[in-house]
Design brief:
This protein has helices at about 30-45, 70-95, 115-125, 140-155, 185-195, 200-210, 225-230, and strands spanning about 10-15, 45-50, 100-105, 110-115, 130, 155-160, 170, 180, 185, 215, 235-240. The chain is an alpha/beta fold and about 240 residues long. A nine-stranded mixed β-sheet has the order 4-3-5-2-1-6-10-11-9, sandwiched between helices. About 45% of the residues are buried.
């Protein structure tokens, strides 16, 4: 791995990306590859916090929740993120990485409550910190939770590891083979595209707080390490237009 460009990062892992080639649940080989990359970047001195999605088990706005009260469905989705967080914690600890899971909803038997200053202290001690439970509020996505936590802990960059999408395109690349990929965008340009690659609220939070975003495909070879080292992967989003 090249010398890291960033000192503290927030990595958002798509729940669907954790499925690997499965149609549901968790592919342990994916978790192992992620854990190994996180271990290597921490050994390089990088402080790593992680937010996990829950789309591999449940989507509050999807068919699983059809007919349910939206708030109830979203709370069910938060529980799915806790399952993923515990699985990732186990994989990290198997690699020898000291890990702490903090949940935005109280689950004291299995996770710490989310406390900002405690999370920062864990990071300073070179522990991996996993944020589960989203923001703890319905109607908010885990993308928004990732942006919020990144800002709260003072992360240098928000890394969005997606499933089968290696950046921002002008249309859905899974449906349109001629879709154009953007290497660089401003937050405003990304918002104006009205695409589903990331939640609008999350983009707005990052824009207001001048937090850069790198959107890339988790399946790429050593993609997490490459993004942290400053190598160009995916789409880089900043407040100011790249000269």
């Amino acid at each position: 791995m090249k010398k890291p460009k960033h000192k503290r990062v927030l990595l958002k892992l798509s729940g669907e990306a954790l499925m690997g080639k499965k149609r549901f649940g968790i592919d342990r080989s994916v978790l192992t590859r992620v854990a190994q990359q996180i271990k290597r970047v921490i050994e390089q001195g990088v402080e790593v916090a992680i937010v996990v999605g829950g789309g591999n088990f449940w989507r509050g706005t999807g068919s699983e929740a059809k007919g349910m009260d939206r708030a109830t469905a979203d709370y069910a989705g938060m529980l799915a993120t806790v399952i993923n967080a515990l699985a990732l914690q186990d994989s990290l600890e198997n690699e020898g990485v000291i890990t702490r899971t903090q949940s935005a909803i109280s689950m004291q038997a299995i996770a710490e409550p989310y406390i900002r200053r405690r999370a920062i202290r864990h990071l300073e001690k070179k522990r991996a910190v996993i944020f589960a439970g989203g923001t703890g509020n319905p109607y908010m996505t885990t993308d928004t939770a990732a942006a919020l936590r990144a800002i709260e802990i003072g992360a240098d960059v928000l890394l969005m590891a997606k499933n089968k999408v290696d950046g921002i395109y002008d249309s859905d690349p899974l449906k349109n083979p001629k879709a154009k990929k953007f290497d660089y965008l401003t937050h405003r340009e990304a918002l104006n595209l009205h695409l589903d690659v990331m939640d609008i609220t999350a983009f707005s939070l990052c824009q207001d707080n001048r937090l850069p975003i790198i959107i890339f495909d988790l399946r790429g070879q050593q993609s997490i390490e490459r993004a942290i080292s400053g190598e160009h992967v995916g789409t880089f989003v900043t407040t100011e237009k790249k000269k």
